[in-house]
Amino acid sequence: MKAMYPENWSQFFTATIQEWKHLLKDDKYKDVIINCLNFLVQNKKVKINAFVIMSNHIHIIWQAMAGNSLNQVQTSFKKFTSKQFIKLLEADKKLDLYEVNAADRKHYFWKRNSLGVELFTAAIFHQKLDYIHSNPINAGLCNFPEEYKYSSALFYKKDIDNFGLLEHYGC
């Protein structure tokens, strides 16, 4: 019998704000991330299994849907969120904090070369899931993973998806 493999494996994705600045400290910037993830899910670009949004980085476990590559999804995510950050920072009069001297752009938010690790086994998936959900505890933001609002921990603990974008991992 021929083994069946997915077109795209689930991926542990990490993106960091340039120079580790705390751009995502304010919830309205975190909401940009949530809105983008919702858009990607609703438009059948990805399935999202887990996430955490910290003040200067994010971790996501996602899987590109058929016809979409992980590279396309990452590029789409970074481009959309960057445009939204510009709008919010202009309104807050803080856009100058993110100016760069680059030939291809005036502002840069995400560090280049984000980390993307394909998750080939359930054991690796669960290790990354635990890592994601431990981030807010390790940062001193909460005592239990499910207490942190911008995380999928509550979904895994009590099956509550406050953002309407999560799907359980199928293993």
Descriptive account of the structure:
The protein has four helices and four strands, in the order E-H-E-E-H-E-H-H. The two termini are 21 Å apart. The chain has a four-stranded antiparallel beta sheet, with helices on both faces. Helix 1 (27-42) packs antiparallel against helix 2 (70-91). The protein has 171 residues and is an alpha+beta fold. A hairpin with a 3-residue loop joins strand 2 (46-53) and strand 3 (57-64). It has a single domain, classed as 2-Layer Sandwich (Alpha-Beta Plaits), CATH 3.30.70.1290. The longest helix has 22 residues, at 70-91.
How would you describe this structure in keywords?
171 residues, Alpha-Beta Plaits, 36% helix, disordered N terminus
**Considering DSSP H and I runs of 4 or more, what fraction of the residues is helical?**
25-40%
Largest sheet: 4 strands, antiparallel
Q: How far apart are the termini?
A: 21 Å
CATH superfamily: Transposase IS200-like
Mean pLDDT value:
90
Query: What would the principal axes of the Cα set say about the shape?
Result: globular
Number of strands: 4
Task: Name the helix and strand elements from N-terminus to C-terminus, one letter apiece.
Answer: EHEEHEHH
Structural class of the helix and strand makeup? alpha+beta
Strand order, sheet with most strands: 2-3-1-4
